Amino acid sequence: MDVELIIVASDAGVMNARQKGRELATTVGISGSDLTLMATAISEIARNIVQYAGQGEIEFHSVVRGGKRGLMIIARDRGPGIADIAQAMQDGFSTSRGMGLGLPGARRLMDDFKIVSEVGKGTTILMVKWEH
Ligand SMILES: Nc1ncnc2c1ncn2[C@@H]1O[C@H](COP(=O)(O)OP(=O)(O)O)[C@@H](O)[C@H]1O
Ligand SMILES: [Mg+2]
């Protein structure tokens, strides 16, 4: 695997991204409960794309660092963006009466997590899960 791309524009896309993530993670040595944690993070980020941006895409890359393999997930949308990232990353913060646990949860569930967002331009989230 080099790069795989899943278009996310509906619940079906959320499911596809989750399933593709599990499948590819297995090929880079991620297993057991790590698979479920990673798939949960993908679902949350994909659901946010559908809910707040309408559509976007999730890219999967196999990566290696220090002899360890990992799965890098890049989620991108050209939606409204996030004005205050620190606020959005807080447990319980939601602009939609949601649980407000998607972003902070994903950060905890993954090994690496970065978010870049610009109002009016969109949001990009990069996350990595490493093999043990
Ligand atoms: N892709 C996105 N585009 C625009 N805003 C987003 C995006 N993802 C998250 N947000 C904003 O960050 C907030 C927190 O997201 P999250 O932690 O998933 O909680 P919830 O979805 O339950 O509100 C959302 O309420 C929304 O305002
Ligand atoms: Mg959410």
In short:
By secondary structure, this protein is α+β, with helices and mostly antiparallel strands. The protein has helices at residues 11-27, 33-53, 85-88, 102-109; strands at 3-8, 56-65, 68-77, 112-118, 122-130.
* Ions, cofactors and other bound molecules: adenosine-5'-diphosphate, magnesium ion
Number of domains: 1
Oligomer: single chain
Distance between the termini: 20 Å
Question: Which fold name is given in CATH as the topology?
Answer: Heat Shock Protein 90
Classify the beta-strand content into a percent band.
Answer: 25-35%
Poorly predicted runs of 5 or more residues: none
Largest sheet: 5 strands, antiparallel
Q: State the share of residues found in helices, binned by percent.
A: 25-40%
Label the overall shape: globular
Can you offer a commentary on this structure?
With 132 residues, the chain is α+β, with helices and mostly antiparallel strands. It has a single domain, classed as Heat Shock Protein 90. A 5-stranded antiparallel β-sheet has the order 1-2-3-5-4, covered by helices on one side. Strand 4 and strand 5 form a beta hairpin. The longest helix is centred in the N-terminal third of the chain and has 21 residues. It binds adenosine-5'-diphosphate and magnesium ion. The site of adenosine-5'-diphosphate (ADP) has 23 residues, from helix 2 and helix 4.
